[in-house]
Each structure stands twice: as C-alpha cells, then as structure tokens.
Design a protein that fits this description.
It is a single chain. The longest helix is centred in the N-terminal third of the chain and has 22 residues. It is elongated and about 85 Å long. Helix content is about 55%, strand content about 5%. β3 and β4 form a beta hairpin. The chain is mostly helical and about 280 residues long. Among the domains are: about 55 residues, no CATH class; about 55 residues, no CATH class; about 80 residues, no CATH class. The chain has a two-stranded antiparallel ribbon.
C-alpha cells in the first residue's frame, strides 16, 4: 500500500501527533512520513551543504546538520550574537551591556544575597563538585587510556604534528606569539559581544586590564621570588593567599604610575585574602 498525505492525515495523526501503535505496522520511518505529509521532494540541506538533522514529525528538520565543525553551526552562532546585540540595543542602548553600572551593581547585590560575597566566583566550587562526582578523574583517566591505545604512551603529545601545523599556518614550526594570539582572541570576543571593545572602555578599565595582564606575566616569570612558599592562590572567602599589589592598582591609576611598575616584581606579594580584602575598604 502506498502511503499518501491523505492516508497519513486520516489514519495516522492524532491530537498529539503520530499514533505510535499504528506507525509500527508500516515500513516508512517517521522522517519519511514527515517528507510525504509536507510534500517535500528532498531532505533540506544546511548552509554547509549537509543533510539537516531531523527532529520529529511535528517539528521537522533543524537548520543544522549535527556536525559541530560544519559552517551551519558558525552561522547559527553569528545569528544568535546578532540577536543578542539587537536585544541589548533595544533594552539598554548598547550592544554589550556587561559594562553598565546598574547591571554590575545588580550582579554584586545578587552575589552578596546568595553567597555572602559580592565578588563570588563559583569556579572553584565547580572544580570541587567535579572532583566529588569523579567527573574530573574519569575524564583524566579516559584521556590517558585513549592516548595509550592510539600511541602506546599515556602522556603522548604529537610534537611533529604541532610543528607541521605551525609551519603551515605561520611559516615557523616554533611559532608562539602570545601577544598576537591575545589580540586575535580579543577581536573575536568583542565581535561576539562577550568582551567590551577597548574604544568603549574607560581609562580606568583599560589601565586595570593592562595591569592584570602584566601581573600574570610577571608572576609566571618570577613565581619563585614572589611566592617562595608556593602558596595556593585562592578566591575571597577561602583559606589561603592572594597575589597582592603593594601599591594598589587604583592608586597607581590615580597617581599616573605606569602599569609596568604596578605589575612589576617588586610591587607583588602573597597576602592572606582577609588582609587583602581589608585594603579595599
């Protein structure tokens, strides 16, 4: 028996969609029934040229194929970002609303109410949860097992492939330009609305960003001198030490002190988080 649109409409469709007990008796799949019912001669293609992913008889096909590396996912991401920027413009008058004073104040108030700390960051909590659930260890072990099976070495790093890729992309097999990479990252994040563009940042925000970047660079280079006891760096509210600027970043900005000096080795020390917090008051 040939399945037609009329047959599907009269015999297979109920108020809730297709009748599962009836479609088991025919050879056509749900996807094939959808094509027949909607009189589609071929399966829709995504912007990358692949077959779109089928959702259900009622909802039909998605706009993407299911391959995260396909162009269709990049296009959907761009559409999402454009919608986000449009919404921010309509609601707040800016494309990126992260820098708005009222939003920052609202975020601090929410953190203070929920966690007792207006600067709360749950990154450490997420890591702790993953460790308690065994997720971190499972993924770590899984990665080592995969490397062992594929390459015979659980700590395998394909150095030759890395060098070949760098040579092809940058013309240097030992390429490692962190500053260019950072600029490229900033450009991408700004275009996607995740970071505030530098031309929309205040002088204070630009200065603070420069100090933060230089501070991490200095700490990495002189860690043994700055932190000889190898204290773990912690967030506010946790027992431990934080990296502190002896001359504060805010004072450096007000007194026109170069960011290089504020982020220099001689201006950095490890300080208990409570003592560091007291300096802000």
């Amino acid at each position: 028996m040939k399945i037609t649109k009329q047959y599907i409409k009269e015999n297979l469709i109920t108020e809730r969609g297709l009748n599962p007990s009836l479609i088991r008796k025919i050879s056509e799949t749900t996807e094939e029934l959808h094509l027949i019912y909607n009189e589609l001669t071929e399966v829709p293609k995504c912007s990358g040229g692949n077959k779109c992913k089928f959702k259900s008889f009622t909802k039909g096909y998605l706009s993407v194929c299911g391959d995260m590396k396909c162009q269709c996912y990049k296009d959907r991401y761009k559409r999402t970002q454009q919608t986000l920027k449009k919404t921010n413009l309509e609601k707040y008058g800016v494309e990126c609303n992260f820098s708005l004073k009222e939003n920052k104040e609202k975020e601090r108030a929410t953190k203070l109410e929920k966690y007792g700390d207006e600067n709360y960051n749950n990154r450490e909590s997420a890591i702790k949860t993953n460790r308690e659930n065994g997720t971190y260890e499972k993924n770590h072990i899984k990665a080592k097992i995969t490397s062992l099976k594929k390459y015979g070495n659980k700590n395998f790093r394909n150095i030759n492939k890395q060098k070949a890729t760098k040579l092809e992309k940058y013309g240097d097999e030992n390429y490692n330009n962190a500053e260019i990479a950072q600029e490229q990252k900033r450009k991408t994040m700004e275009e996607n609305g995740h970071w505030i563009p530098k031309d929309k940042m205040s002088d204070w925000e630009i200065y603070k960003l420069a100090v933060r970047r230089l501070t991490e660079k200095t700490y990495k280079q002189y860690k043994d001198d700055i932190n000889p006891n190898n204290y773990n760096r912690v967030l506010c509210g946790e027992d431990g030490y934080q990296l502190d600027h002896i001359i504060s970043v805010y004072k450096g900005f007000n007194d026109n002190i170069s960011a290089d000096i504020i982020a220099g080795k001689d201006n950095l020390q490890m300080l208990l988080w409570k003592d560091n917090r007291c300096k802000w008051k």
